[in-house]
Design goal:
Blueprint (H helix, E strand, L loop, with lengths): L2 E2 L9 E5 L3 H12 L4 E5 L2 H11 L3 E5 L7 H11 L4 E6 L5 H8 L4 E4 L4 H11 L5 E4 L3 H13 L4 E4 L2 H10 L4 E5 L1 E2 L2 E2 L4 H4 L8 E5 L2 H12 L3 E5 L4 H9 L2
Parallel strand pairs: 2-3, 2-4, 4-5, 5-6, 7-8, 7-9, 9-12, 12-13
Antiparallel strand pairs: 1-8, 10-11
Helix pairs in contact: 2-3
Length: about 250
């Protein structure tokens, strides 16, 4: 899966750091506050969930192994009330099953301790950057063509070539617009609408297809105004216009 981010100023974003190691909390606090972010810290998962209810972080940095509830469970509880929060996990046990589960649950990344603070800061800034447009199509050439056209207009993009890959991308980072082929190799593009249902700010959705009648019968009737439908071959200028309006 490719990912290109066109950045903008991320100053003033809200970050929650969760780690039972006071030294790590202090180090992360120092480096993140120096960039102008608003920061809160928690020493365990229970405290993190309580803070998040009022703080509503844009990003959570969580240790995986902590007393009480671990980082993966903490992230799931936070996301119930703040669905758009992104997560970066930290662990001294990178090969553990919980690391794999963290990635499956939507982690941007799982970083090994001791942390490379410079690399972490770059990842934080990238994560807090402009929400990308997600392009999902099982035809790599189509994905590449659309991505190049949007990037040429300064639009950040994220790409996927399967339904599973696209769903995981939406769990990792909310998208500004979703552009999906109706028929993906492992499912239907409109199934991605289910991934958006938990997000408080619903994102525009564009479906592309070569079968207009099927689209009208099975998609347009079902979802109505939630979905913009475009026929193949795609008019790139029309697509860019639809994206730019969002």
């Amino acid at each position: 899966m490719g990912n290109t981010i066109v950045g903008e100023s991320n100053a003033g974003r809200r970050i929650l750091v969760v780690d039972d190691d006071a030294g790590i909390r202090t180090s992360l606090s120092r480096i993140l506050r120096s960039t102008g972010h608003e920061l809160r810290m928690a020493r365990d998962g229970f405290e993190a969930v309580e803070i998040a209810r009022e703080f509503h972080p844009d990003l959570a940095l969580l240790d995986i192994r902590m007393p009480g509830i671990d980082g993966v469970e903490t992230f799931q509880r936070i996301r119930r009330e703040t669905p758009a929060v992104a997560a970066i996990f930290m662990t001294a046990y990178a090969s553990s099953d919980r690391s794999d589960e963290a990635e499956e649950r939507g982690a941007i990344s799982v970083l090994s301790k001791p942390l490379d603070l410079g690399g972490l800061l770059e990842l934080v800034e990238s994560t807090l950057g402009t929400s990308p447009v997600l392009i999902a199509d099982d035809d790599p050439a189509m994905v590449k063509s659309i991505a190049r056209s949007l990037e040429a207009k300064g639009i950040a993009v994220q790409t996927a070539t399967s339904l599973r890959e696209a769903a995981r991308a939406l769990r990792q980072r909310p998208s500004r617009v979703v552009i999906a082929d109706v028929f993906l190799g492992d499912g239907f593009g409109y199934e991605l609408l289910e991934e958006l249902e938990g997000q408080s700010d619903r994102r525009p959705f564009v479906l592309i297809t070569g079968r207009t009648e099927w689209m009208e019968e099975n998609v347009t009737h079902r979802f109505g105004g939630e979905v913009v439908c475009l026929n193949k071959p795609i008019d790139i200028d029309e697509l860019i216009e639809k994206v730019a309006q969002r």
